[in-house]
Amino acid sequence: MKNLLSQSMRNQLRPRFYKCRRDFTKYRMELGLAGRAPDFLLLGAQKAGTTSLFDVLTRHPLIQGSRTKELAFFDRYYELGFDWYKANFPNGTKLTGEATPDYLYLDQARSRITADLPKTTRFVVILRDPVKRLVSHYFHARRLGYEDLRLEEALNQESDRIGLHGDQLAGHPLEKRSFRHAYSYFDRGLYDVQLEKWFSVVPRDQFYVTTIDHFLKNSNIVANEVFNHLGLPDFDVGPNSSKNRGVYSSSVNHELLDNLRERYAPSVRRLEEMLGLSTGWIGKTANEDD
């Protein structure tokens, strides 16, 4: 069906489809079918492999994911209420969770999550080379129809868009996507800043942090590290299909990419010190990118 519709048509239908899903959850709530708060959240980062990782994690027989992978409750649909949120999860003894990649980045989401969810909630974070993430984010915005600027101009306007006009809506109104959601291309790649904020309000040992590079090479190892983090036994998750991972670097000016990598270098070094790992993101050139 996806291949039969133009991108423009899909952009018009998608918000209505997800609106129907949200409305259906209201009916479940009214019927007394509300579930419970999640045991874990996959917080992000956006365009860093959250879909693939969530797919792998929910293969475990003791995990049952949310009805929709990306609920966006704590950022976009908070007014629907916490009972609506719980209605997206199953009851029972299995662990349950969701994956909304905006949660890592947005201050408001972090405040709501730490206020509303149990203190025992576990968190999972997967990160991607910030330059590749930025480029993928930009082309994603182009594809969904809410970005018309060239990449260089979008980066030049980013601080005004997310600072002065951050709460203004971009794209279809049903999606409630703010400028801060839509146009935070560079800012979202400052993972050290985001994790520092999270670690200041949630104990560090409640987080499991990895990179998409490590995950793609060692999906079963990463999955079992997450399972152990969640208190579950090991499980062979099988092959990883790696969903939703676009590569666009070859279509972007290499000088711009090298400049972005240089700008990100201090943040990446600080991130590596915080996490005690080597990402391999520093010192690369555009010619070495995928």
Can you walk me through this structure?
The structure is a single chain. Helices cover 44% and strands 7% of the residues. The two termini are 30 Å apart. The chain has a 4-stranded parallel beta sheet. With 290 residues, it is an alpha/beta fold. The protein has 11 helices and 4 strands. It has a single domain, classed as 3-Layer(aba) Sandwich (Rossmann fold). The mean pLDDT is 90.
Question: Characteristics of this structure?
Answer:
Rossmann fold, 4-stranded parallel sheet, alpha/beta, 7% strand, 290 residues
CATH architecture assignment name: 3-Layer(aba) Sandwich
State Rg: 19 Å
Main sheet, how many strands, which sense, barrel? Answer: 4 strands, parallel
Q: Please identify which CATH superfamily we are dealing with.
A: P-loop containing nucleotide triphosphate hydrolases
Percent of residues in β-strands: 5-15%
What are the segments in which pLDDT stays under 50 over at least 5 consecutive residues? none
List SSEs in N-to-C order.
HEHHEHEHHHHEHHH
**Helix fraction by DSSP (H/I, runs of at least 4):** 40-55%
Determine the structural class based on helices, strands and strand pairing: alpha/beta
Spatial separation of the terminal alpha carbons: 30 Å
User: What is the total domain count?
Assistant: 1
Number of helices in the DSSP assignment? 11
Query: Could you say which overall geometry the principal axes of the C-alpha atoms support?
Result: globular
